[in-house]
Amino acid sequence: MKIKLNIRQKILVYILGVAVLLFAIIFFFISSSARKIAYEQSVKLTDSYAKQYALNIECLINQDFAVTRTLSNAFLEYKQMPFPQWQELIYPMYNRVIQTTSHVDAIWDSWEFSNLDPNWDKPYGRYFYIVYKRNGVFSSKRETRSLAGDPPTYGHMKSVAKEIIVEPYISELQGGQMMTTLSSPFLDNGKFIGLVGVDLILTRFQELVGEVRPYPNSYAFLISNQGNFIAHPDTSIFKKNIKDKLPELISSFDVLTKIQKGKVQNFITKNSKGERLYYSLAPINIGNTNTPWSLGIVVPINDIMAEANRNYNISIIIGFVGLLFLVIIIFIVTNSITGPVKRITLLLQEVAKGKIDKSMSIKLNTNDEIAQMADALSESIKGINAKTEFAREIGSGNLEARVELLSKDDLLGKSLIEMRDNLKRAREEEENRKIEEEKKKWVNEGLAKFGEILRQNNDNLTLLCDDIIKNLVWYLNSSLGGIFILNENKETNEKTFDMVSAFAYDRKRFLNKSYHFSEGLIGACAAERDIIMLTEIPQQYIEITSGLGDANPNFLFLIPLITEDQVMGVIEIASLKKFQVHEISFIKELGKSIATTLHSVKVNALTSELFMKSKEQAEMMAAQEEEMRQNMEELQATQEEAARKTFELEGLVSALNASSFVMEYDTNGFVTNVNDGYLKLLGVKRDEVIGMHHTDGIIMSDHDKDDYNKFWGDLMKGLIKKRKTKLGIKGDEFVLLETYTPIFDPHGDVYKILKIATDITNI
Q1: pLDDT tens, residue by residue, 596-648
Q2: How large is the greatest C-alpha to C-alpha distance in the chain, in angstroms?
Q3: CATH code of domain 1-338
Q4: Angle CA 314–319–322, to nearest 5
Q5: Which of 178, 385, 670, 749 has the fewest CB neighbours in a 10 Å radius?
Q6: Can you give 378-431 as a three-state secondary structure string?
Q7: Would you tell me how many other CB atoms lie within 10 Å of the CB of residue 673?
Q8: Crossing angle, helix 581-659 and helix 411-455, to 10 degrees?
């Protein structure tokens, strides 16, 4: 028996059945693939986080290594000048670096004596200088080290003779913080002659690594080349070694060996709770060393799959909703196919009666003759509705209304558009005429207003400029303004443009700015004798270049004030909007009037000034004659007193040289002068003594060095020190009482040390 189905039933059976089957197959495939892709993307995201933050840390450390390397390279130029002079030139760089870099704890260098002193014949012994922080205070010290042999750490750096990053260590001086040291050697033709080192505080990496959380329960850690945890959220692991805290990672995955080789690592393991964890480790290559560190990220597998599972569940819900929506759509489409003819007939009957409105439309998607007929009818009704609405808008005064032509042959639509364009053209002409009249009125009122301002205070340049710039900024609705007036210095024959008045943000700004011809925008405007307009102004441009303060407007306008072919000054206006043509014309016209007024004010002021000066000069000449007579008498008396004191001082110096041993040192302790009596006592020549250091020939312990540094530091503070010294000269022993006196320059600074010694051997 053949089953008879109508159109509705056929659509439901055939289309709906096939659609449901295909939908189920496609949905299962896409959901499974999406879950797998989500897992792979999560793993790649974790690896990319590890790589990116490893690169960030690598860049931070390499920046510090670049500073160390730069200092090392710069120090190789020490042969260009005497070593003490080179030290005074280079060592201030240490202070600038350590003061501007909070994570740098100390900067130091070490020089082999075998390189500095040709007579030094030992393979050890070095000169050491360091700048360091202690309790927030910057200090420095110089000393000799390794006189009995090189310590192990320095000996290793010396034997390797290449860039090294020291394995992180815990600093007691820095409250238990982890630190490391970067060192870069000085190599002269391949020979090790010293090195420079930078001590770094590693606290910042604990904070940086703590921010790495690609997933809610994930965490990151930073580990050194030897397996020490530099950063870790778990305080029981932080600062410990991976061998002690996570030995299972070494035994199962050989993690430490791969870290030391700088390899990328990723693997899955279980923790003590049985939770599966994904590890991703990225290497951190430091400078030219072969001791890389590594950054690791640990993510629970459940966190990685959480998003995929959530998306899978959402996909199931969306699938069922989509299937239900598909069934509803098919029912709707079925109904739209079975009744189109009736709907079209009813619609044609309404049109025949002359009834047209927006609700009268029909849309079929059957793609057959009925659908084409329905579409044609709907388009016709839509076109008539659009033209009706267009005509209504034009009638209400909306000349911006638009209408779409049904085709190129739509005569009614073309006629309506032509009518609209004619009406719009007439309206625009009327509006343009009103705008031009308003602009002319604005310009005329402004010129009249400033004409009144220029007639006031024309005997006081400052008040006049204040009124001009204040009212000009207000009238142009600008942000900033300033007037620079030509100042001709007759004594130096120098011409500058000085700021007389400035106004910004509804208040006067008292600024003191001056420019020469062709200097900055002000000088360029005056030199070119033409306006300057800038529409692209970088951030803080005005503060740097134009001198109007720290605002950042979008438009800058400068105009020279010229009268009788002479530039009297420059007006500078800054605004958040670009000036229109009529505003620029207004400023140009006003500039001529301002220039003429400024010229008159300056001429009047000059005349008054010349009159007052001539009067003052007459009075001053009489007073100066009397003062000159008195000065001559005082000068004669002063010369007589100076001659007497000079004679006494020469006698005192001669007596001192005859009775005592005198020697002078510079502030670094090097001999600069010695008297003949001292040379005779020592039995040496003058050129053998000059340039010697105060401590030459003296072997001091660490305690002696501290006492000596305090002794010399007191002298540099201006304190007079006394000490007894025993000298063995040609088999005889002499005891000298030495008095060290700091000598000050006119500025109150110590510039040399005077030592006066007295022989008290027989006392």
Answers
A1: 888 888 777 777 777 777 777 767 776 777 777 787 777 777 777 777 776 77
A2: 152
A3: 3.30.450.20
A4: 125
A5: 749
A6: HHHHHHHHHHHHHHHHHHCCCCCCCCCCCCCCCHHHHHHHHHHHHHHHHHHHHH
A7: 15
A8: 50
Burial of 483 (0-12, 13-18, 19+ CB in 10 A): buried
pTM of the entire structure?
A: 0.43
State how far the Cα of 98 lies from the Cα of 136, in Å rounded to an integer: 11
Q: Looking up tokens 């945890």, which residue turns up?
A: 229
Beta bridge partners of residue 574, listed in sequence order: 480, 556
566 burial level (CB within 10 Å; 0-12, 13-18, 19+): exposed
State how far the alpha carbon of 356 is from the alpha carbons of 340, 347, 403, in Å. 19, 10, 17
Q: For residue 293, count CB atoms less than 10 angstroms from its CB and return exposed for 0-12, middle for 13-18, buried for 19 or more.
A: buried
* Numbered ranges of CATH 3.30.450.20 in the chain: 1-338, 660-759
Q: Name the CATH superfamily housing domain 660-759.
A: PAS domain (3.30.450.20)
Rounded Cα gap, residues 482 and 500, in angstroms: 8
The end-to-end CA distance of the chain, in Å, is 151
Contact between 478 and 578 (Cβ < 8 Å): no
For residue 551, the number of C-alpha atoms closer than 13 Å in the C-beta half-sphere is 17
CATH number of 456-610: 3.30.450.40
Distance (Å, whole) CA 712 – CA 748: 18
Distance in angstroms (rounded) separating the CA atoms of residues 289 and 69: 12
CA distance 25 to 658: 117
Torsion of the alpha carbons at 540, 543, 548 and 551, rounded to the nearest 10: 30
Residue type for position 589? E
Map tokens 């710069």 to a residue: 74
**702-714 residue pLDDT tens:** 777 788 888 888 8
Q: What is the dihedral of CA 117, 120, 124, 127, to 10 degrees?
A: -30
